[in-house]
Known about the structure:
The structure holds two protein chains of two kinds. Chain A is an alpha/beta fold. Chain A contains 13 helices and eight strands. An eight-stranded parallel sheet of chain A has the order 6-5-4-3-2-1-8-7. Chain A is globular and about 65 Å long. Chain A starts with a helix and ends with a helix. Helices cover 49% and strands 13% of the residues of chain B. An eight-stranded parallel beta barrel of chain B has the order 1-2-3-4-5-6-7-8, surrounded by eight helices. The model of chain B has no long low-confidence stretch (mean pLDDT 95). Classes of the chains: A alpha/beta, B alpha/beta. The A-B interface holds A 51-53, 55-58, 82-84, 86-87, 90, 110-111 and B 41, 44-46, 48-51, 75-77, 79-80, 83, 103-104.
Amino acid sequence: xxxxxxxxxxxxxxxxxxxxxxxxxxxxxxxxxxxxxxxxxxxxxxxxxxxxxxxxxxxxxxxxxxxxxxxxxxxxxxxxxxxxxxxxxxxxxxxxxxxxxxxxxxxxxxxxxxxxxxxxxxxxxxxxxxxxxxxxxxxxxxxxxxxxxxxxxxxxxxxxxxxxxxxxxxxxxxxxxxxxxxxxxxxxxxxxxxxxxxxxxxxxxxxxxxxxxxxxxxxxxxxxxxxxxxxxxxxxxxxxxxxxxxxxxxxxxxxxxxxxxxxxxxxxxxxxxxxxxxxxxxx
Amino acid sequence: xxxxxxxxxxxxxxxxxxxxxxxxxxxxxxxxxxxxxxxxxxxxxxxxxxxxxxxxxxxxxxxxxxxxxxxxxxxxxxxxxxxxxxxxxxxxxxxxxxxxxxxxxxxxxxxxxxxxxxxxxxxxxxxxxxxxxxxxxxxxxxxxxxxxxxxxxxxxxxxxxxxxxxxxxxxxxxxxxxxxxxxxxxxxxxxxxxxxxxxxxxxxxxxxxxxxxxxxxxxxxxxxxxxxxxxxxxxxxxxxxxxxxxxxxxxxxxxxxxxxxxxxxxxxxxxx
Lengths: 283, 272
């Protein structure tokens, strides 16, 4: 499905999900793809920053749970593959087995850091080339999309990032994600030079300007991820309601901020379960 | 842990933990090789921290004897080592060992091991020592894999550095022969050492070396061999090598697994 979408017209918008319920909400809102954000999963599962603490098993388990609960393609952050080419092979296979459509690998050392943090360190280009080749080797479904991310812009230079991106394309990457370009010119330059579908990371308060889908399409990007938008929104909403709860000492004061019980039950699928139950009842 | 030599057989699942306890051993050793093999994987650094802790939790709820667990290289760098120590403590490990290989590591007896810089390895031990919560009493064992790639002098120097950084015990992996054991003892007996009895030296012959902790793969090796042999026999001859009556084994297993305990509780609550 994702590969077909890459070959069709239009930008694929993939909001970020940090748990299964947020993934369901992305689908319910009518988007065509979900992005599983390691930044968000680290916060959700561990309550910790995106600094390479979360394990491949935890990410793969979340990915699998998201895939089981949704029916649109999921593009999943796989950090740096969690080790060497050997670990990349296992990562790709676990994610694929879990039902993930697109897997994103980056050229940072292990443990990695969030792409918009200071202090990132890269692996040598050839090491990442090996990892991409290993990923291509490891996939069992030819439609699984391998996304290669380079963090070189912040650590070395924009030119280095472009060089690496090209090398990763040659190694077999299906999509390129040049992390944290610092200007509109750089964003456009990537589209001029790299000839595979491109992924743009639209993250609030990051180093990259925020574009509309129309602008991205004009520039020549294929996928737009919004890794933090649901996470940041939920965080603010929860903080605000907890403040009200604390102040008013009753959640009656919170209800106008909430989805109501019948609505939530509908969203989470209670009517379908009831119908299933009925259909199995023997009179 | 007790004074004197502790012998800790290798385990990697709940049944093995129960068997080791029922047989009267004072401790058990959670083997990373065994954990990987139970997932159909070789011991080449593919297993994650959380797959190890999931198993430690199972071992911990299966038996009351202390668990000494493999912690490979700590699963990353300093921040990962901190997570490893805390998760292992919480999962119920009494001791863990962290080694100075690159990640992904290899089994200590494989060829081609690569060792990280001594300073980095020493700093990881310090991170581990600092990370532990003192009330949990976790024993931190610093393992060095330097013997095969770099030789005895390098391994000794590293081990002593790790001990100075605060490790409670040290552990040379890759001991193969009787001579190796003697050299290990000759060099390192002033520090508490772990001996991995892969060479399968009879314990009465190891006693003289006074290792405080011996981890022992005998049951693991024996059972793996039995599995290979039985499958081969079944395939070739149509007969399993197991010729006893199954009920004796079945009863022994259900006893070790605690069926009686559960049935008794069930009766107790039914009759309240």
